[in-house]
Design goal:
Largest sheet: 8 strands, parallel, barrel
Oligomer: single chain
Distance between the termini: 36 Å
Strand content: 5-15%
Number of strands: 8
Number of helices: 21
Order of helices and strands: EHHEHHEHEHEHEHEHEHHHHHHHHHHHH
C-alpha cells in the first residue's frame, strides 16, 4: 500500500448526473448499487446539495431529506458530502441567518458529514455563517475557492483567499474549477502553493469540458492534493468529472496508489451504464466532444445547456454563437464574477437579453439590479459605472454583508406551511423553495409522492417534442421571433432543465 495514497471523492450521486442527466437520477436508482459503493473505500461520496434538492421535489416527486437517510442506512461508514452555496444554501438568493443555521443542523442530523461551502463571488462574508454553523454541528468545513480567469484573478489571489478561509475555521480547502478553466500546470502551481503556504488538506474538483481534466487531476496529485473528485466512467467526461477508473489506474504502483479495486469499480460502472441508458438521452447535454473554447467564454457545461434552451424557447437558436461572445462582455461589465450559481445564471440571462433585444442592457432583470445593489456580495472588481447607472440609477449600493439586511424567516415559514409540514425538514423545504415544496407536500398528503425505493425513469419523448432534443453545442438555424423578450426570472432560467451548480 502506498505511503501517500491519493484519496477519491466520487460525484456519481450528485455532480455527475447533475452535469449529464439534468439531476434526474432518483434515489430508487441509487439504492441497488449503494452497498457496492460503500465497499469501495471512498474518502467521500458527493451525494447531495447543488440542484439535487429542488429537483427531487420538482421532477422526481420524492423527499430530498429521505434520500440522505435511506442511503446512509446502506452506507454507514462512507462520508457523505454536499455542495452548499454559502448564504444561498441551495437556492439563488441569500437566506436569513436563522434559515442557514437550521438547515445545517438538519443536514448533519440526517447524515451529511462534509460540507463543501462556496460563494459565487468568492466573498468570504457570504461563507462565514455557514462555516461557523457547520463547525458548531460537528461537520467538516470544506471551504471552496471558485476558480476563474480574469485580469483580477490569479493563483496569488486564490492562495491568499485560502489562507483567509483557514483563518475562518476551514478544515480543508477545495479548488472548485466548475468551468474547467484550470489547465494542468496552473493546477499544479495552485495546489502546491496552497499546500505549502496554507497547510490544509486540499481537494481538487474540475470538469472535463475542455478535455484536460484527467491531466489536471494528475498534476494536482503530484503537487500534493489529498483528494480529487472523479465520477464512475458511465457518467463521466464531458461536462462531468473525469472517470474514477482512469485516475485509479493512472496511479497504480506509484506512491499515490489509491488502493481502490478496479474490478469493483467496473461492476459499479456497468450498473450506472444501465441507469444512463434508461433515460434514453432525453436529458443529455449533447456536448459530446471537448471544447477548449471554455477558456475564451468561461461558461460551465450546465450553463451552456441552459443558454441553448433559452434561445430555443425564444425561437433564436441561431444566435447561440452571438450569446457565447456576449457572456464575457457582460461578465467584465459586472466586475468579473466567477460563473457559478447564481452568477452564471445572472450573467447568462443578461447576455441572452442583450443579444435578442439588439441593444445592450435595454432589458435588465431584477437579479442584475440586485447584484448592482450589492445584495449578492462584493464583486471581484468594479462594476461598469454605465451599467450601474442603467440598473439602479443614483441608488447607493449596500456595503455590508448582504444577509445582515434580511429578517429571520423560520417562524414565518412554519406558520405559512402549517399542517402540510410533518417535520422540521418539511418546513425547511418550504423555506427554501416555497412553491415546489408546497406542491410536493400536497402530493404526499394525497398519497401521490413517489416511494423513495422506486426508481424513476424518464424515457425519451416522441420525436419532435422540445424536451427530447438535447443540446448539441451547435445551434440549428431557425426562424427568430421579432418580439422583445421579457426578462425571465432567475429561477426559471436556472431550473428549466435542472442544471444549476
Amino acid at each position: 500500500m502506498s505511503s501517500k495514497p491519493l484519496q477519491i471523492c466520487d460525484t456519481i450521486l450528485r455532480d455527475a448526473h447533475q452535469s449529464l442527466l439534468a439531476t434526474r437520477m432518483s434515489t430508487g436508482s441509487m439504492l441497488p448499487i449503494a452497498a457496492k459503493l460503500e465497499s469501495v473505500g471512498y474518502a467521500a461520496l458527493e451525494m447531495w446539495g447543488g440542484a439535487t434538492f429542488d429537483s427531487a421535489m420538482r421532477f422526481l416527486k420524492e423527499d430530498p431529506w429521505e434520500r440522505i437517510r435511506v442511503l446512509k442506512e446502506v452506507m454507514p461508514t462512507t462520508p457523505f458530502q454536499m455542495l452548499l452555496r454559502g448564504q444561498n444554501i441551495l437556492g439563488y438568493r441569500h437566506y436569513p441567518d436563522d434559515i442557514v443555521a437550521k438547515f445545517v443542523e438538519l443536514a448533519v442530523k440526517n447524515g451529511i458529514d462534509r460540507f463543501r461551502i462556496f460563494d459565487a463571488l468568492n466573498d468570504p462574508r457570504n461563507m462565514a455563517w455557514a462555516m461557523r454553523n457547520v463547525k458548531e454541528q460537528g461537520g467538516h468545513v470544506q471551504a471552496s475557492i471558485s476558480y476563474t480567469l480574469s485580469p483580477v484573478h490569479n493563483n496569488r489571489v486564490f492562495i491568499d483567499l485560502a489562507q483567509k478561509l483557514k483563518d475562518m475555521g476551514a478544515d480543508s480547502i477545495c479548488v472548485k474549477d466548475m468551468a474547467a478553466l484550470c489547465t494542468p500546470y496552473v493546477a499544479y502551481d495552485l495546489v502546491k502553493g496552497i499546500k505549502e503556504e496554507v497547510g490544509l488538506p486540499v481537494q481538487y474538483h474540475t470538469h472535463d469540458t475542455a478535455g484536460y481534466a484527467l491531466a489536471a487531476l494528475v498534476k494536482a496529485a503530484e503537487a500534493g492534493a489529498d483528494i480529487v473528485d472523479t465520477a464512475i466512467s458511465a457518467l463521466a467526461g464531458g461536462t462531468a468529472q473525469p472517470p474514477t477508473e482512469a485516475i485509479v489506474a493512472t496511479f497504480q504502483g506509484t506512491e499515490r496508489d489509491t488502493g481502490l479495486d478496479l474490478n469493483l469499480l467496473s461492476e459499479i460502472a456497468s450498473y450506472f451504464k444501465t441507469i444512463r441508458s434508461q433515460h434514453l438521452g432525453r436529458f443529455e447535454t449533447g456536448i459530446t466532444t471537448a471544447d477548449v473554447r471554455v477558456l475564451m467564454y468561461q461558461i460551465p457545461g450546465g450553463m451552456l445547456s441552459n443558454l441553448v434552451n433559452q434561445l430555443r424557447e425564444q425561437g433564436a437558436a441561431d444566435r447561440y454563437e452571438d450569446v457565447l461572445k456576449e457572456v464575457p462582455r457582460v461578465r467584465e461589465d459586472l466586475g468579473y464574477p466567477p460563473l457559478v450559481t447564481p452568477s452564471s445564471q445572472i450573467v447568462g440571462t443578461q447576455a441572452v437579453l442583450n443579444v435578442l433585444t439588439g441593444e445592450r442592457y435595454k432589458v435588465i432583470p431584477q437579479e442584475i439590479k440586485d447584484y448592482c445593489r450589492g445584495l449578492y456580495g462584493r464583486p471581484p472588481a468594479e462594476i461598469n459605472p454605465e451599467v450601474m447607472k442603467k440598473a439602479i440609477g443614483d441608488e447607493e449600493p449596500i456595503t455590508g454583508r448582504p444577509a445582515d439586511y434580511l429578517d429571520p424567516a423560520w417562524e414565518k415559514a412554519k406558520a405559512e406551511i402549517g399542517d402540510l409540514a410533518e417535520s422540521e425538514e418539511d418546513i425547511m423545504s418550504y423555506a427554501l423553495f416555497p412553491q415546489q415544496a408546497r406542491d410536493f407536500l400536497e402530493l404526499r398528503k394525497q398519497g401521490l409522492a413517489v416511494p423513495i425505493q422506486e426508481p424513476r425513469v424518464f424515457p425519451a419523448q416522441e420525436p419532435g417534442t422540445a424536451e427530447s432534443k438535447p443540446s448539441t453545442g451547435v445551434a440549428p438555424v431557425v426562424r427568430r421571433s421579432k418580439r422583445v423578450p421579457k426578462a425571465p426570472s432567475l429561477w426559471k432560467v436556472s431550473q428549466r432543465l435542472g442544471r444549476g451548480l
